Every structure is written in C-alpha cells, then in structure tokens.
C-alpha cells in the first residue's frame, strides 16, 4: 500500500497556502479598487469579515512556514483587507458620563412576534431616542400605549417609509427631505427632525435607504446617502447632528466612508470588531448563529463622543437593535 511522504504533504500545504494568499490578495485588491464603481464589487463588502478571518489565518500560517515571499504576499493581502476598517472616521470615546442613549432598530415588516418583547427591551434599556424602521401599525400603537417615550414623529408611517421616532426630548420639527439628488429621483426619503435638548439644537436624521440587491437599487441607496450627507453637513454650523437607522451599507463599503467624509460626521462605534446586526433568519433558526453583516449604524457630528456601543437581543426581526450611548458637548 502506497503512502504519501511528509515531503509531499509539505509541498501540497505550501501550494495550498500560496493559492489562498494569492486569492485573498486578488479579491481584496479588486474589491477595494472597484467597489465604488461596480455594483457586485460593493456587494462583496457585505461579507468583508469573512475575507479578513481567512487572511489572518493564512498570514499566521505563512509565518509558521517561514517563507519570506509567502509572508510578504499574505501580509499585503491582510493589510488591504483591513484597510476599509481603518479608513473610518470614528467619534472619540466619552471621557465623562454619556447623557443620551440612542437605539436604532429595524422591526422587520414580516415580524410574527408581538411587540411585547421589544417593549420589555426598551423598558430595560431606558433610551432617550428610538429610531425605528419597517414599523407596522399595531407595533406603533403598542409603543404609543406603553408610554415609554412621550414624544413621537408622524403617525402616518407610510408617508415616512415605515420609519418612526420616539423620544424623551420634545420634537420641534419634522420634515422628509426632497427625494432628489444630482438630478435623479430617490425612491425613499430621509426624515430630518429637530429635538429640543435645552440648548444647542439637536438634529436627527432617520434613514432607511434601499437594499442594494439590484444595480438600480444600489444607485438609489448611494444617492440617498449622498443626499443625507449633504443635508447633514449644512446643519453642522448651528446644530449637533445624529444620523441613525438601517443604512443597508456595511462600514467596509466605500459609500459608508464617503458619507462620513462628505457629511463631516463620524461613526459612533467603540471598536473595529464587526457585530452582525442583519442576519439570515433561516441560519439563525437552523444553526443558532447570527450570520450576516453590520448595516445598522449611528453617525454623529464632531464634538459628540461615544460612551458605548452594543447590539441588543433578538425580538423576531432579521436585525438586532443597536444601542449607542452618546455624550453631547456642553
């Protein structure tokens, strides 16, 4: 009976490592270069953590193999894979006690559970502002009846693309933005609200752009984000600004970075480790894991710092809520 020699096994292992290192380098480079221009390349950023993890494994394996050329190629691939995370403008950590808790949650329009679990979650977290997407009429009624947050945005949720804001702070004004950017009409509309924070105005943008499942939806999402960025930048001189919602955009997409740079805002995150806030209900049911991407975000104006960021519990949606503690400038 023939056996495979250790030398043959070592050769096969090196070939496998070389193949993996070249594949990771090629994929990372192509995606980073092309994602702003090509729809499919940008879609690849939704699965970016699933590229970074193999890149780390291949790099460590190359070090153990003691092959300088392999180490160089795998290190380059890993560096390019990590580049989108380190390109993010992020808000500074809070040095004092955060004074404003913001929760953003996509309730999922096909959610079969009752609102009770979500309301219990809000009771525990005691937020100051809640930004909701895909809310249905009976959920809106249950949240109003709970009396948790006394101020609310328009009850005509269809005119707000099924978005809803509840707040402890008085809502002074509310207006959807005109759905046009660069001569193109946008299917949905961001909603601009002004909250009374007792001093400097606090402007909140509730957003939920299209899911980029088709090229036209991708362009629509990008225009939606560009419109919101343009409006938010116009508020920076006179107001503190918060943008919250289901962005349908991972932080590794160039369009997320473009939004932050064009608006002058910063991502309200604590660390760069990904947390999957949008996941497959089927995978969650079969495997008990939240496999997906991170697309629910909060962004803030300079001067606002972050005291905490975490994902909340499952309440029947295909999203997890995001809880962010903010410290506003005095």
Automatic annotation (TrEMBL):
Cross-referenced Pfam families: Exo_endo_phos
Which GO-annotated molecular functions does the record name?
Answer: endonuclease activity; exonuclease activity
Annotated Endonuclease/exonuclease/phosphatase domain ranges read 104-319
The record's Gene3D superfamilies line, in alphabetical order, gives:
Endonuclease/exonuclease/phosphatase
N-terminal signal peptide: none
This protein's UniProt keywords: Endonuclease, Exonuclease, Hydrolase, Membrane, Nuclease, Transmembrane, Transmembrane helix
Keyword Protein transport belongs to the record: no
Q: Which residues cross the membrane?
A: 45-64, 69-88
What protein does this entry describe? Answer: Endonuclease/exonuclease/phosphatase (EEP) superfamily protein YafD
Origin organism lineage: Bacteria, Pseudomonadati, Pseudomonadota, Alphaproteobacteria, Hyphomicrobiales
């Amino acid at each position: 009976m023939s056996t495979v020699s250790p030398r043959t096994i070592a050769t096969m292992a090196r070939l496998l490592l070389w193949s993996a290192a070249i594949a990771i380098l090629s994929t990372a480079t192509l995606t980073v270069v092309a994602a702003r221009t090509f729809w499919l390349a940008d879609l690849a950023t939704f699965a970016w953590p699933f590229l970074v993890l193999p890149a780390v494994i291949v790099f460590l394996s190359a070090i153990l193999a003691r092959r300088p050329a392999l180490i160089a190629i795998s290190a380059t691939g890993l560096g390019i894979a990590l580049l989108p995370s380190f390109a993010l403008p992020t808000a500074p950590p809070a040095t004092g006690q955060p004074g404003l808790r913001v929760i953003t949650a996509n309730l999922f329009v096909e959610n079969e559970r009752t609102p009770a679990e979500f309301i219990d979650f809000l009771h525990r977290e005691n937020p100051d502002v809640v930004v909701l997407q895909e809310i249905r009429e009976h959920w809106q009624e249950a949240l109003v009846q709970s009396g948790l947050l006394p101020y609310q945005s328009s009850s005509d949720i269809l005119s707000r693309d099924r978005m809803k804001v509840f707040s402890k702070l008085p809502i002074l004004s509310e207006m959807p933005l005109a759905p046009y950017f660069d001569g193109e009409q946008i299917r949905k509309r961001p909603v601009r609200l002004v909250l009374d924070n007792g001093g400097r105005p606090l402007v909140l943008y509730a957003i939920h752009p299209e899911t980029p499942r088709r090229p036209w939806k991708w362009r629509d999402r990008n225009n939606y984000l560009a419109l919101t960025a343009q409006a938010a930048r116009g508020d920076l001189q006179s107001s503190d600004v918060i943008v919250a919602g289901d962005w349908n955009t991972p932080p590794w997409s160039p369009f997320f970075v473009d939004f932050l740079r064009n608006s002058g805002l910063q991502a309200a995150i604590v660390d760069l480790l990904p947390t999957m806030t949008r996941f497959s209900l089927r995978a969650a049911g079969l495997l008990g894991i939240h496999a997906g991407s991170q697309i629910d975000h909060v962004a803030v104006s300079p001067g606002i710092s972050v005291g905490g960021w975490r994902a909340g519990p499952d309440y029947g949606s295909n999203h997890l809520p995001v809880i962010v503690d903010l410290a506003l400038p005095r």
